[in-house]
Specification:
This protein has 227 residues and is of the alpha/beta class. The protein has a single domain, classed as Alpha/Beta hydrolase fold, catalytic domain (Rossmann fold), CATH 3.40.50. It is 49% helix and 11% strand.
């Protein structure tokens, strides 16, 4: 949520000499289904698909809409379940604050340092998150908040998926903890779980080399053959 290509910049730099990389925006539409349709419309006929946090939520919906087009799937620091009612309700005052010009304040409150692993890189990562959020602006915050409030439960999608899947999370992720990723890995017949040491909710920036190595191995894995 409220991220652009900078969330994957270390991986883009490291892998772009080996792979064609496309970063699909998840800023268009106010439902996960509409955002996923936009991603599918702009994607190649067959593609490997990776998403982090809200991007992972959209990726699961892309898999539901176009399962035969996804050759590999990577779900990082995300959640396959529908939004809990108390969290959905808590988004309403955030939306009001953002609509009254307090986006930076809301982002400071929401992207708490506790979501990240302790360490010297924490402040740099938080600054990058703030820069991305302010660049995207309040309208995107409102649309993405609405999409998350109404997001579909994807447990059934994951149970049916035959796609080779990497499930990845930071060991210190307090927003989407390890147990949720263990649950997703248990649902999927062709999934493997990797936990990134000394990382929290944003391992692509907190421990970029470890994530890049896992994604490189994931990209070299056998592809999913359409049914």
């Amino acid at each position: 949520m409220m991220c652009d290509a900078r969330i994957f910049m270390p991986q883009i730099v490291a892998l772009s000499g080996e792979q064609t990389i496309h970063v699909a925006p998840i800023t268009v539409g106010d439902t996960v289904e509409a955002i996923a349709r936009h991603v599918v419309a702009g994607a190649p006929e067959r593609f490997a698909l990776a998403g982090l946090s809200m991007g992972g939520i959209v990726a699961m919906e892309v898999l539901r809409q176009a399962p035969g087009r996804v050759t590999r799937l990577a779900l990082m620091d995300t959640n396959c379940q529908a939004e809990m009612s108390n969290i959905a309700a808590a988004r309403e005052p955030q939306i009001v604050r953002v609509m009254t010009g307090r986006l930076a304040e809301v982002m400071r409150d929401e992207m708490k340092p506790g979501y990240l692993a302790p360490g010297p890189q924490r402040l740099e990562v938080l600054n990058t998150v703030m820069e991305m959020a302010l660049a995207l602006g309040p309208d995107v915050f409102v649309r993405q908040s609405r999409a998350l409030q109404r997001r579909p439960d994807q447990q059934g999608t994951l149970r049916k998926a035959k796609t080779p899947t990497l499930i990845l999370c930071g060991e210190h992720d307090a927003l989407c903890p390890i147990r949720r990723h263990e649950f997703m890995a248990h649902l999927m017949p062709n999934a493997r779980l990797e936990v990134i040491a000394e990382a929290g909710h944003l391992p692509t920036l907190e421990q970029p080399n470890a994530v890049t190595d896992l994604l490189r191995h994931w990209l070299a894995s056998p592809v999913s053959v359409p049914a």
